[in-house]
Amino acid sequence: MRGLVLIIVVLTAFSSIKAEGAGFGEIQRVEFNVTLEEDIVVIEQQGKRYEYPPKEKSYAGIKKVEKGDLNGDGVDEYIISAQLQETEIYYPDGQRTELPMTVYGTTIVCEQHSGWPEQLFVVAQLSPGKIWPSFKLLDVDGDKTLDLMAIGYTYGHWKQLQIASWKNGRYIYLWNKGGGRYTSEHTYSVREDGTPQIKVGYPISDKVGKKQAYVIDDWEMWVFDGTEFVDEDVELEE
Ligand SMILES: [Ca+2]
Ligand SMILES: [Ca+2]
User: Fold this and answer.
1) Which ligand is nearest to the CA of 141?
2) 71: CA distance to ligand 2 center in Å?
3) What is the DSSP letter of 28?
4) 26 CA to centre of ligand 1 in angstroms
5) 37 class by beta-carbon count within 10 Å (0-12 exposed, 13-18 middle, 19+ buried)
6) Domain count, the chain
7) How far apart are CA 151 and CA 156, in angstroms?
8) Distance 138 CA to ligand 1 centre (A)
9) Which domain holds residue 48?
10) DSSP H or E run through 109
11) Ligand positioned closest to the Cα atom of 196
C-alpha cells in the first residue's frame, strides 16, 4: 500500500511539473486525480468523485470526454471537460488564496502511459469562462494536427475561448485573451479563403435606471496570420 501511495505522489508531482513546463502554469488550480476504471473516466477532487458517463444528472461533474491525437505522436490523448468545485487557488510563487465555495469549468488534456494505463496524466489545463465547459478538436493553424479549442461561458452568458496547440514539444496558446468574468465574448469562424478569425466583444457597464447592466457594443476582429491571431484593425494601420 505504501508503495502505491508513493507512486501516486511521484506521478502527481511529475504531471504538475509537466503542466507548468507546458506553459499552462500561470495559475495552478486545485490538484485532482484522473483515472480510468474500465471505460469509466473518474476525477477525484476535494473528496468528491465524478464519473463519466455520469450516474445521474448533476451541475458539477464531467461533461464531455473525447480522444484525439493532439501532439501528433500517433497516440490519442483524453480530452475532458468538467465543472468542478473550487475552494482555493495556488499561484506559482506558492501563495494560496481561499475562495468561497464555487464551481469552475475546465478542460484538461490527459496522457495515458503504457506503464500505468489506469492513470491519466494531466499535461494541460484550460479554463476559459466560468461555467458550462466544453471543447472542440480542430486544426486551427493548418499544420494537420488537431488543436484544442476550450469553450466556457461567463455569467453574462458570453462565450469565451482558449485555443491550445502542440508546438516544438509543448502546448502553447494560439488564443488566450480575456477569459475572466464579464470581460469579453469570443466567436470563432473561418473565412471563405480558409483564414480563421475570432470576433471579440467587450462588455461595458451601463446604468439602466437604477440597475447596472453589462452590454457589448465594442467589437474587434482578430485574424490568424499563419502564426498567431492579430488584431485586424491594428494590422491595417501599419
Ligand atoms: Ca498523442
Ligand atoms: Ca494544428
Assistant:
1) 2
2) 9
3) B
4) 24
5) exposed
6) 1
7) 15
8) 14
9) 2-237
10) strand 96-112
11) 2
C-alpha 41 – ligand 1 centre gap (Å): 18
Task: Calculate how far, in angstroms, residue 116's C-alpha sits from the geometric centre of ligand 2.
Answer: 28
- CA 238 – CA 233 distance, rounded (Å): 9
Amino acid at 236: L
pLDDT at 238 over 60: no
Rounded distance from Cα 11 to ligand 1 centre (Å): 19
Ligand 2 center to residue 5 CA distance, Å? Answer: 37
pLDDT per position as a tens digit, 117-148? 999 998 888 988 888 999 999 999 999 999 99
pTM value > 0.90: no
What are the tens digits of pLDDT across the range 47-92?
A: 889 999 999 888 889 999 999 999 999 999 999 999 987 666 666 6
Q: Please tell me the distance from the alpha carbon of residue 230 to that of residue 197, in angstroms, as a whole number.
A: 9
**Residues 5-20: pLDDT tens digits?**
434 333 343 333 333 3
The total of other beta-carbon atoms located within 10 Å of residue 224's CB is 21
Nearest ligand to residue 166 Cα: 2
- How many alpha carbons fall within 13 Å on the CB side of residue 27? 13
User: C-alpha grid cell for residue 104?
Assistant: 469552475
Instruction: Give me ligand 1 centre to Cα 120, in Å.
Output: 13
Contact predicate 46/85, CB 8 Å: yes
Q: How far is ligand 2, taken at its centre, from the CA of residue 150, in Å?
A: 14
Total Cβ atoms within 10 A of residue 105: 24
